[in-house]
Design goal:
The protein is an alpha/beta fold. Helix content is 50%, strand content 14%.
Length: 336
């Protein structure tokens, strides 16, 4: 077959792209005009095609390398590349520096400035930035409520106590409205997550569970949670890049995390999708690859990237234009 380049391919909207890759112990290169990753099995090498026109982002874990030619082709196709650790551990961790994922965003094309202009209009206003953080948290709660109570979750063995869930979400909705600062919002976020862990543990009869971050957990649920969060980061980085909003313009995590907007956006779906799937997969005895595939399928089926982009758009337009509906209200819940 003749060689071809990404420019020969039809463009697929990022929100409709189906693939999200997490690679370890392989080389990413260009072979015959195609971007492929190569795994070594004994004396043989196996080549696997990466359909870049239908891919949102690629996460490169431990033992990986990528060629300059491959980076060029990925940039042309608008694929974000992130460098991270393996098994849910950060790649860079030394003293005061702690980076979960180091992102390389494609610079080969101009991004639209419409939403960036909306964003910076309100971002320098402390009150409006707090309003944006509240809107993100309200959207997060709506997403959790819609997906945790769906039939798909029940069929997968995730039998949540709907009364307890609704009670917790209602309480936090009111608390978010009254939160006077981002510090208070972060505290509320941590409290709700702790409550959600307790509900998830009971939903699958997991037993004793204590959340251990930074890859320090040895039980399956902890490992899956760390691993799955990287997939949410990949979609979040793509969502912000698609709209042309820099990762540094965070509304909640900005003062403590580099590129905090990625973490803000990832939080929209982490608890709704990754958290329950981690416990479901742990109880099924899934391997990491099986869990990763289940997460990707669930993120795709629930149109999580669409939800991230739509939420960013609505918050930007509402606070940047000063009109429209209240941020965080009536944001789409996606297909369950």
């Amino acid at each position: 077959m003749d060689d071809f380049s990404p420019s020969d391919l039809k463009t697929i909207l990022h929100s409709k792209r189906a693939n999200l890759y997490y690679l370890q112990h392989c080389r990413v290169l260009v072979n015959g005009g195609r971007v492929e990753y190569v795994t070594d099995e004994g004396s043989k090498s196996r080549y696997w095609n990466i359909p870049i026109a239908n891919t949102t982002s690629i996460l490169l874990g431990t033992g990986t390398s990528i060629t300059q030619a491959a980076m060029r082709e990925l940039a042309k196709a608008g694929v974000l590349v992130g460098f991270c650790g393996g098994g849910g551990t950060p790649l860079f961790a030394a003293n005061e520096v702690d980076v979960d994922v180091a992102w390389l965003t494609p610079q080969s094309e101009y991004r639209p400035t419409e939403y960036l202009q909306y964003w910076v209009r309100f971002w320098f206003d402390d009150v409006k930035r707090l309003d944006a953080a509240r809107a993100f948290q309200q959207a997060r709660l709506a997403r959790i409520e819609a997906l945790w109570t769906s039939r798909v979750m029940k069929d997968a063995g995730f039998s949540i106590s709907t009364d307890h869930l609704h009670s917790a979400l209602t309480h936090h909705r009111e608390a978010i409205k009254k939160a006077p600062s981002t510090v208070d919002l972060l505290t509320l976020e941590a409290r709700l997550t702790k409550t959600l862990f307790k509900l998830a543990v009971n939903a699958v009869d997991y037993g004793d569970f204590t959340r251990a971050k930074r890859g320090s957990g040895t039980d399956p649920a902890n490992r899956f949670l760390d691993h799955g969060n990287y997939l949410a980061y990949g979609l979040a980085a793509t969502a912000t890049w698609v709209l042309g909003i820099p990762h540094g313009l965070a509304v909640l995590h900005g003062k403590t995390r580099r590129g905090g907007l990625v973490f803000d956006v990832a939080d929209l779906v982490k608890d709704a999708v990754i958290l329950p799937q981690a416990f479901i997969s742990a109880m099924r005895g899934d391997e990491e690859q099986e869990f990763r595939q289940a997460c990707i399928e669930r993120l795709t089926r629930t149109e999580s990237l669409d939800f991230m982009i739509d939420t960013l758009k609505e918050v930007a337009q509402e606070l940047g234009q000063g009109q429209g509906k209240e941020p965080g209200q009536e944001l789409g819940s996606g297909e369950a």
